[in-house]
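Dear H.,

Thanks for agreeing to be a second pair of eyes. The structure we're designing against is below in token form, covering all 170 positions.
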């Protein structure tokens, strides 16, 4: 629920959310193969529903669906798989690496989707480059969010595990 709240709370750092970190950390930590995908995608869908039908209804026409939606969801699905591969044996360094890779995949695919699915940019190489350029401020926030929230999840689990091991051996 905290991950969902980070998407819904209005603040200046758009895309500084925990959903990406939840995707790659969940890919590594959640054993149930369906739940590891369902949790981040479900939270993304629920927050999209609130954002698109309530908070940003004047821009979306109140519709849950939007152009390029698939290009946003695919990177999160890939992030779960990336987390499963990169974080088999999690370390803080690997969490940062997973956050970077996940953020890069999201940036490349989502901005390609904005270019491909929308009418904001011409369907030319220049239009694609402009879409990527305009996405750079969001990219920074995505990377920082992935790393901050990924490390927060990692260190919370490390501390919880150490505490439970101490209690079990006491």
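And this is the sequence the design step returned. I haven't edited it by hand at all.
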């Amino acid at each position: 629920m905290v991950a969902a709240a980070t998407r819904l709370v209005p603040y200046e750092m758009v895309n500084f959310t925990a959903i990406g970190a939840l995707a790659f950390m969940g890919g590594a930590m959640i054993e149930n193969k369906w739940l590891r995908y369902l949790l981040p995608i479900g939270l993304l869908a629920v927050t999209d529903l609130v954002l698109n039908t309530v908070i940003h209804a004047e821009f979306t026409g109140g519709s849950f669906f939007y152009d390029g939606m698939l290009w946003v969801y695919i990177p999160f699905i890939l992030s779960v798989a990336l987390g499963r591969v990169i974080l088999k044996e999690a370390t803080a360094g690997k969490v940062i690496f997973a956050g970077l890779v996940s953020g890069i995949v999201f940036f490349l695919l989502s901005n390609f989707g904005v270019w491909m699915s929308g009418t904001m940019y011409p369907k030319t190489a220049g239009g694609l480059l402009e879409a990527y350029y305009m996405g750079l401020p969001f990219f920074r926030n995505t990377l920082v969010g992935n790393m901050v929230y990924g490390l927060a999840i990692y260190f919370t689990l490390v501390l919880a595990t150490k505490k439970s091991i101490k209690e079990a051996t006491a």
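Two observations from my side: Residues 18-152 form one domain. The mean pLDDT is 89.

Warmly,
E.
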